[in-house]
Amino acid sequence: MSSLRIRPRFKESVPENVESFKNRIQTALDAENEFSGLVSDQYCVIKIRPEERHYWSPQLTLTLEENSEDDLEVRGLYGPKPSVWAVFFMSYAALGILSLFAGVFGLSQLMLDKPAPILWAIPIMAAVALGLYLIAQAGQKVGAEQMFRIHHFYEQVIKHRVALT
Questions:
Q1: Which of 7, 15, 71, 136 could form a disulfide with 79, with the two C-beta atoms 3.0–4.6 Å apart?
Q2: Strand partners, 78
């Protein structure tokens, strides 16, 4: 179930309306002791119970979009808690912005025939970004068993298999 993507996802069409789908998810969550979650208007989150959660515990976020009365498009996204994802996203963004500024400053120094040692920061920041990616992959491996359990639970609720992309 592991993927090179940081946040595995799926998209499927379900032949029912939003209300019946939400009721099915809520009933399954209420009957299950292993998972907790939130079911709202167009959005569902399935999580591992708080007693079993750790830093890398995944959650499944379902976005529900009704195409017609009995045709529902469900988009699922596996990922860590939003705070964990935000740390990685902001780190990537900061590295990108710092690399851009280092590149612009370094190239302008080179154009003025001055030394530009700041350009060495770009490969270092690329290595840090690669390190962050590898840490995210390692965290995904730590949470893989819980992700498999959540995915299996979802497949039991909807009564068919779902492939991740």
A1: 7
A2: 60
- Same domain for 73 and 18: yes
Q: What is the mean pLDDT of residues 99-125?
A: 97
Q: Can you give the residue range of the structural domain that contains 113?
A: 84-137
What is the tally of structural domains in the chain? 2
Give whole-number Cα distances, 125 to 22, 108, 128, 136, in Å: 44, 19, 5, 16
Contacts of 163 by beta carbon, 8 Å cutoff, 6+ apart? 10
**Element holding 164 (H helix, E strand):** none
The answer to whether position 165 is within a domain reads: no
Q: What is the pLDDT of residue 1?
A: 45
pLDDT score of 68 more than 90: no
Inside any domain, residue 163? no
How far, in Å, CA of 72 to CA of 23, rounded? 14
